[in-house]
Amino acid sequence: MKQLLLLSLTVVLLYSSCTRDSAAGKSSEQVESSEPAEIFINPDFDFTEDDFTIRLSGLPGKAVENPNKFLTFAEGMLEIPPEYLVLVDKEHALPEEFIPADILDLDSFDELKTGKSGLSLDRIASEALVQLSKAARVDKITLLISSAYRSYAYQQSLFKRYADRDGEEAASRYSARAGTSQHQLGTTVDLGSISESFAESRAGKWMEENAGEYGWSLSYPRNLDEETGYKWESWHWRWIGPDAVKMQDEYFNGVQQRLLVFWNENASRIREAHVVIE
Fold first, then answer.
1. Ramachandran area for residue 160 (φ above 0: left; ψ -120 to 50: alpha; else beta)
2. Which pLDDT score is estimated for 274?
3. d(Cα 57, Cα 259) in Å, to the nearest integer?
4. 3-class DSSP state for residue 5?
5. What's the average model confidence in pLDDT over 122-129?
6. What does the alpha-carbon distance between residue 205 and residue 139 come to, in Å, rounded to a whole number?
7. Given this model, what pLDDT does residue 158 score?
């Protein structure tokens, strides 16, 4: 089968500076200082099962070194439903009525260990979590799922509890207001102790080395509070798919937030220009 992939658009690859002013004031160790660069993608290239030939001009940075790689990642990202790559943060909230279309009880999976009953997750994320857990067990690691899908109403009650205890400003550094939590997507889990000690645990170190292979991405890395909106959470992982993780690591310094900002600004144009002819 031959596929013809047509992309006739200009997209902006913002690298680590795609968060614009939110990156201001960070040290060079935290954020690379590079200007936004435009990618001009020629509408003429063939994608087949056996060969990937591209004619491009103006591709910047790492993308110039291997444009095939960039476009292959984008192709893979287009194949999953758009809600799996939606940007959810303090500035981009989900509506109250948003509920994952196909949500499963994690207790129904023998391969998963949960910290409490009643946890649920989107079907694709659930299946990816099973594969992740199986791989971990091969290395004698057990992943404990401590939290998963959270409804809008649950987010409201949880934030209120923290705000009543610590004050709203303090609570907002570690807890999401209703609609702004990735947990509402049904594609996000908290693992282990839900504390900084998870990073030094065997499970935490295993996740850091292996999670991306199965499409899982750390949402809130160290020293990026101002950029992501939240303090470091070594236990908080979101499924975005293997291709998205590869693009995140290759072009966005391994930072999920930067990838999702870029993708949410450009995905619609990429998707509109994507035509498959069988």
1. alpha
2. 54
3. 22
4. coil
5. 97
6. 12
7. 87
